[in-house]
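Good morning N.,

You mentioned wanting to compare the apo and holo forms, so I went ahead and generated the holo version with adenosine-5'-triphosphate. This is what I fed in:
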Amino acid sequence: MIDYKKIKKSLKKALKAIEQMEMLDILMRAQAAGHLPPNTFQLFSQEFAKVSQSLNQATHSATLPSSSAAPSENALPPMSYQEWLKKLADRQSTSPSVAPAPSPLSTAGADEALRQSEQRLRTIIDSTPLGIVITNEDGIIEYANQAYCDIYGYTAQEMIGKPFTIVVPPEKKDFWMDLHRKYLDGYKEIRGEWEVRHKSGRPIYILADAARIIGTDGKRKKVTFVSDITEMIKLKEEARQSELQLLQAEKMSSLGQMVAGLAHEMNTPLGFVRNNLELLESKHLEIRELLNAYDKLRTQIMYGTPNDVAMMLAQIDQLSQKVKNRVYEQAPSLYRNSIEGIDRIQDLILNLKNFSRLDEASFKPTNVNESIESTLKIANHLFKGGIQVIKEFSPLPDIMAYPAQLNQVFLNLITNAVQAVDERNGRIVIRTMQQGDNVVIKIADNGKGIPPEHLKRIFEPFFTTKDVGQGTGLGLSIAYRIIEKHKGKIDVQSQVGKGTEFTIQLPINPMQTTAKSTSSPFVESPFLE
Ligand SMILES: Nc1ncnc2c1ncn2[C@@H]1O[C@H](COP(=O)(O)OP(=O)(O)OP(=O)(O)O)[C@@H](O)[C@H]1O
Ligand SMILES: [Mg+2]
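and this is what came out, ligand included:
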């Protein structure tokens, strides 16, 4: 995770250090010009070294990802003024014979001190990884340090004398010029993250802040401090993308479970309703034949001979014998049964609606007992063979929750329990109770249990012991996140060969509760002693 707060804090520290250095520079100049007592020189130089070190640390820390080593390990060590001058002399090839610290008392040393003070500042500014640029009132770049040039891919010669808008997207030039003016006039800030342009045209992202100064020409200038955060923004975006993918997988997994379960549940009533309709259809054809025969008989009675009538009656007897078979007797119950089947399907659709609460994905008063009931209906098809579900519900107050999400948790715990128990004698006990400000739900099974080495990992996304197609390993990680979001807690106790019990605690009002869950269930298990 990118620690933007830390970066901003470090940048603020860096800015403060630069301000202090400017102040020290002024004091050193004053001292060199003889306006201050000579013994202050030592004091200022010590102070200068300290401030330069804190600038180093702050800029280091601002440009390192938070996972890197602590800035103090990487930043330059404190440097005495003598060492500083020596380093300066090493760097300045144009003045290889920079003297060691001049005597603060010598007048010849005053000019030298002044020159060195300037050199020192320039070296610091040029060696800092923080980009620094000075722009005049017209937005023309007057100075850009090495880091600033490096961030944008230009040389200093290519930048100096050009409008600072060479680094902004063409369509944003007016916006930036306007911001620049308003900033100098004192009623807009530059502070923030911005998208700008590298020389190559590719977008880069910077964290920027600025200061207003009056230049030696007496005119207003803007000093902008810039840190390249492109890499961090990329990491942030990657993290966001993988989070989205996980969410998508979660959605698909719970949706898949629900759809599969529902398809199964609907298949049975649909099957018998269809059978019944086929039987009733064939019966209908026979009844139609019988009615046709009656029509004919009617004609015979009116216009035919008694012999014809007798023949017709015999035929009708035969037909009505055929009609009055088992299906005819069963017809009312076939109708009743089909209506019930259709009611079951309708009920399932209603449960699905209740379960997914597609129409009310909001945070609302929720009755946990009702949520579990509606989940059990959805999970009904799972309870095959002799699996017994025992409900021990206590009356519960409504809790503030996302009901559809809680249903997802319950469905996964119930599904896991069903998959863990023996079909012949499986027992799943679901208990609910109120404990103080919490509602507690316990889902226990007498299944195979979870070995300790798995117990540590069951909340990890994609951890599963099930065969491909049986489990994705997302169920408990989703459950953990949902419970965490509700400021609740999920615990598990398990014994191999005996069974498993999951306990969920949910605050009645999560808004008044501080999070109870461990922020990362994956590092170590909170459940094992
Ligand atoms: N009640 C239980 N009894 C025994 N083992 C369990 C129980 N609940 C969870 N587990 C173990 O924890 C693992 C992770 O469970 P989880 O619900 O996260 O994924 P899954 O059930 O394997 O897959 P999915 O839930 O995505 O279908 C399971 O594979 C299983 O080994
Ligand atoms: Mg599961």
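Residues 412, 415-416, 471, 475 surround magnesium ion (ligand 2) (CB under 6 Å).

Happy to go through it together on a call whenever suits you.

Best,
F.
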